[in-house]
Each structure stands twice: as structure tokens, then as C-alpha cells.
Design brief:
- This protein is α/β, with parallel strands linked by helices.
- The protein has 16 helices and 17 strands.
- The chain folds into 2 domains: 277 residues, 3-Layer(aba) Sandwich (Rossmann fold); 182 residues, Rossmann fold.
- The protein is globular, with a radius of gyration of 22 Å.
- It binds adenosine-5'-triphosphate and magnesium ion.
- Adenosine-5'-triphosphate binds next to helix 4.
- Magnesium ion binds next to helix 4.
- One of its GO terms (biological process) is mRNA transport.
- Its EC number is 3.6.4.13.
Length: 487
């Protein structure tokens, strides 16, 4: 496990690879869980801050316009300076080019920073800056004046995957770059040949299983912790393995610790539980009808069967030049299969699933962030939290489903749909999501999704590929224009 000093971070992005023809085998079924399941740490500063460069179309999204519209989740009437933050933290924010707080930051920060500390359950749309809200609270609460304070964990942040944990480390590094002696530890599974060392740092970010293990082995000292943050909290508390682990971790922490839960989604059954996990919490919540992000244009297209999905994918990439894109599939096996077939065709694609070892996962995501691979094929493991500003298209190759043993009908996974499409359209940028529908059941699931979010998912006709190209390009441009004028 590493302790790191803050560093500056690169931003990635550029033109998409083209992808072409294929043979025809069927993907096997073996659904990928949404949680983390393995591997080493090796955090890196990956954040591009609020760099608004898009590779393909030179569009400057005018954030100040967006932030002036009270209905926009990026809205703000205040400045960071009014929130009583440490000047060195303000310096970090300005180095990141953060000019004004977003709505969630503006609302959450006074509640979070208040003394005596109170718990918080915070919800806001994808890409609206929840990370900065909880990182600012953590940085503000650290006492770095003594060597002991610098080397003893005071804040613990848990995330469902190693990629998200590493990303959060990157944000802390950049935001905290002017805080002397800030050391950050990453607690994610080690490669099988590595031996984790004691974490001597003031902030720890990790996945629950590894954190639990490190506390038990006393290489993570927990008795001075003041803040516990759960990012993607509904997922952390809902999912069997992760939920149990989070509860066990919490039971090993000081009783008066401030508990902070953040997510874009808090389905009812988890919300009730979340308020028990974080007793007496202040709450910032949204109705599910308010959750979709305006800048993300949602589309779908019909395919006749599994093989046709692949042909369609190939067609789509053959005609489109997008920034970076993510293709979400149901199983590790189909991720592998699609990757293999594309590589045979000579394309540079990256694929990341829970099946590969940690250091390799790190290499894949870093390659994608840096724009060395423009297409990332993945499962639900990367559905949440991942922030890569250049992603302008998300493909739901398979519609996300909830797996209920014995259920008669297939059931759409609303939360995962929202998180997946939220990998594009980050902080006022625009993007397109395209869901593939290959039978009646899937069409029904897509309909359920539309109803649940009170949103409209528009069909694109694949009979005429020129038209498809036209529609998608126009969509990206129009949506961009809209976002620009803050509508
Ligand atoms: N006040 C701000 N000004 C400018 N950019 C910001 C601001 N706050 C956050 N951002 C940028 O917005 C992007 C999205 O932020 P973040 O990843 O925290 O979103 P999120 O709310 O956690 O989304 P998700 O629900 O998908 O996890 C990041 O690239 C971040 O740097
Ligand atoms: Mg997030």
C-alpha cells in the first residue's frame, strides 16, 4: 500500500478508433458483479479537474452560464471563499480550475463542515461534483500539525471498486497539493505476490474488504479516525458482500465518527437503511424523476439478435468518430469476446473486468484515461463513479438487469442504467447513450427505465446508416449547443 504526496495530473482524450467486421460466436453467460473483487493498489493522480477540452468538436461549455441557471444542478449563488475553507485548499481548487461550487457542493459543504460534526446523506445527479464535496470536508478536518497526525489515519473513504478508490486518491492529491505533509494511503487488494505494509498517512481510500483486512492486521490504525465516507453508498450498503463488509468496518471505528454517504441514487429500500447506518444525518435527496442529466442524449436502436448486436456495434464504430466511449456488457465472457474480435480486426480497444489482476486493471484504466485506447469494453464493475471527461458516448450493449432468482420476467436495473450513462455528460459536458435492444423483453425493460426516470429514450433507425450517423452527430452537436446556452 502506498503513501503519496500530491502531484499534478494529466487529462486524456482524442479521436476514436474505428472498428470493423467479424465472425460470429455467442457470448457465454456469467454475470459480472458490480463490486470489486481483487487486487493491488497503486494510486495515481488521474484527475483532469475541470478541464473542458473535448477532442473532436471544439466546444467550450460555458460553465458560468450553466451555473447561473437555478434549475441546473451545477447552479451556484456562492463562492468557495464564502464557505470558510482553508486558503491552501482554496488554492488547490483554483489550480483545478473550480471557480464556483456546484449545487451539491454549495448545499452539502456547510452541513458537512459544521461543528460538532453531523452525519450526511447526500444525493445529486451523476457528474455534478460529489467527490469534491466529501474530499473538501475531509481535507478541512485533518490535523496535519504533528508528525503523529500526518502518519495516523484521520479519515477513511470507501468505494466499491479499486478504480474508483484510485480516482478519489487522485482528486485528493490535486485538491490537497498545497497542504504540507498530506499523505494518502490506498487500501485496495494487492497482487498475489505483494505484501501490504503499514499505512502511515492521514487519509485512507480503499475498498471495504481490504480495509477490513488491514484494520484486523493492525496495518491500518483505526482509532483516530474522525470521518468515514462511503462513495456510491447505496451500492456499498445494498450489495450483499460489500454491505456486510461496510457494517463490519464501521463496527471497528470510533463511535463518534462523522459518517458521510454519497451517491447519485438512493433507492427507497437502501435509503431507509442508509439513515440507520448514518444516524441523525442531514439529508440532501432527489426524486428519481429528477435524476437524469440534461446533457446526456438517450437513444436506443433495434437489433434482431445477439449476432446482430455485434454487427451493429461494428457499423456504429465504423461510421462514428467520437471522443472516447465505453461499451457496457453483461458478462466478463462477452467483454472478452468483443475485445478479441475487435483486436483481430486491428483495433485498439481496452477491456476491464473483475477477472483480471489488480496491476493489470490499473494499467488498462490508465491507458483509457490517457486516451491511448479510445474504446473501453467493460461490465458493471465500471458503471459507477468513473470520471473521464472525454467520454462522449456510452453504449449499453446489454441493458442492465437485476437478477432475481425465480423471477418470471426480466427486470431492468434502473440505478445501474443511470450510473452507466452518467459516465458521459460530466459537469456540463454533453454525450450520447445508445442502448441496444434485441427482443421484446429488452424493449420492455427500456420502457420501464423511461417510465421510472420520466425521461424519453429515442429510437434510431438502423436501416439507413447515413441517417444514423447524421442523427448521432447532430445530437452531439445540438446537445452541445443546448448545454452551451444553459437551457
Ligand atoms: N465546482 C466545480 N467546478 C468545476 N468542475 C467541477 C466542480 N466540481 C466538480 N467538477 C468536475 O466535475 C467532474 C465530475 O465530478 P465528480 O466525479 O465528483 O461527479 P459525481 O457527482 O461524483 O458523479 P458520479 O455520480 O458519476 O460519481 C469532475 O471532473 C470534477 O473535476
Ligand atoms: Mg462520484
Amino acid at each position: 500500500m502506498s503513501s503519496e504526496q500530491p502531484t499534478e495530473a494529466p487529462a486524456g482524450g482524442s479521436l476514436a478508433d474505428r472498428i470493423t467486421a467479424v465472425d460470429g460466436s455467442k457470448p457465454a453467460e456469467n454475470v459480472e458483479p458490480a463490486g470489486d473483487n481483487g487486487q493491488t493498489d497503486g494510486a495515481a493522480a488521474q484527475q483532469g479537474g475541470s478541464d473542458l477540452h473535448e477532442p473532436d468538436y471544439t466546444v467550450e461549455v460555458k460553465l458560468s452560464d450553466l451555473q447561473a441557471d437555478p434549475n441546473n444542478p451545477l447552479f451556484s449563488v456562492k463562492n468557495f471563499e464564502d464557505l470558510g475553507l482553508d486558503p491552501r485548499i482554496l488554492q488547490g481548487l483554483s489550480a483545478m480550475n473550480f471557480r464556483k461550487p456546484s449545487k451539491i457542493q454549495e448545499r452539502a459543504l456547510p452541513l458537512l463542515l459544521h461543528n460538532p460534526p453531523k452525519n450526511l446523506v447526500g444525493q445529486s445527479q451523476s457528474g455534478t461534483g460529489k467527490t469534491a464535496a466529501f474530499v473538501l470536508n475531509v481535507l478541512s478536518r485533518l490535523d496535519l500539525t504533528t508528525e503523529q497526525g500526518q502518519k495516523t489515519p484521520q479519515a477513511l473513504m470507501l468505494a466499491p471498486t479499486r478504480e474508483l478508490a484510485r480516482q478519489i486518491v487522485g482528486v485528493i492529491q490535486v485538491m490537497g497539493q498545497f497542504l504540507d505533509n498530506l499523505m494518502i494511503g490506498t487500501a485496495v487488494p494487492a497482487d498475489s505476490n505483494a505484501r501490504p505494509a503499514k499505512l502511515e498517512c492521514s487519509v485512507v481510500v480503499g475498498t471495504p474488504g481490504t480495509v477490513m483486512d488491514m484494520i484486523k492486521r493492525r496495518i491500518l490504525v483505526a482509532n483516530k479516525l474522525k470521518v468515514l465516507v462511503l462513495d456510491e453508498a447505496d451500492n456499498m450498503l445494498d450489495q450483499q458482500g460489500l454491505g456486510d463488509q461496510c457494517i463490519r468496518v464501521k463496527s471497528l471505528l470510533p463511535k463518534d465518527i462523522q459518517i458521510v454517504l454519497f451517491s447519485a441514487t438512493f433507492p427507497d429500500h437502501v435509503h431507509n437503511y442508509a439513515t440507520k447506518f448514518a444516524p441523525g444525518a442531514n439529508e440532501i435527496t432527489l426524486q428519481h424523476e429528477e435524476l437524469t442529466v440534461e446533457g446526456i442524449k438517450q437513444l436506443y436502436l433495434d437489433c434482431s439478435d445477439e449476432e446482430d448486436k455485434y454487427r451493429t456495434l461494428v457499423q456504429l464504430y465504423g461510421l462514428l468518430t467520437v471522443g472516447s466511449s465505453i461499451i457496457f456488457v453483461k458478462t466478463r465472457a462477452s467483454a472478452q469476446e468483443i475485445e478479441k474480435r475487435m483486436v483481430v480486426e486491428g483495433h485498439t480497444v481496452a477491456s476491464l473486468t473483475g477477472g483480471i489482476e489488480g496491476s493489470q486493471r490499473d494499467a488498462v484504466i490508465d491507458q483509457f484515461r490517457a486516451g491511448q485506447a479510445k474504446v473501453l469494453i467493460t461490465t458493471n464493475v465500471l458503471a459507477r463513479g468513473i470520471d473521464v471527461s472525454t467520454v462522449s458516448m456510452v453504449i449499453n450493449y446489454d441493458i442492465p438487469e437485476i437478477h432475481q432468482p425465480g423471477a418470471r420476467e426480466r427486470q431492468a436495473d434502473f440505478q445501474t442504467y443511470l450510473h452507466r450513462i452518467g459516465r458521459t455528460g460530466r459537469f456540463g459536458r454533453v454525450g450520447v447513450s445508445i442502448s441496444f435492444v434485441s427482443n421484446r423483453e429488452e424493449w420492455n425493460m427500456l420502457n420501464q427505465i423511461q417510465q421510472y426516470f420520466s425521461t424519453s429514450i429515442q429510437r434510431i433507425d438502423t436501416k439507413d446508416w447515413d441517417e444514423v450517423e447524421d442523427i448521432i452527430k447532430k445530437t452531439i452537436k445540438n446537445t452541445r449547443a443546448q448545454a452551451q446556452f444553459g437551457k
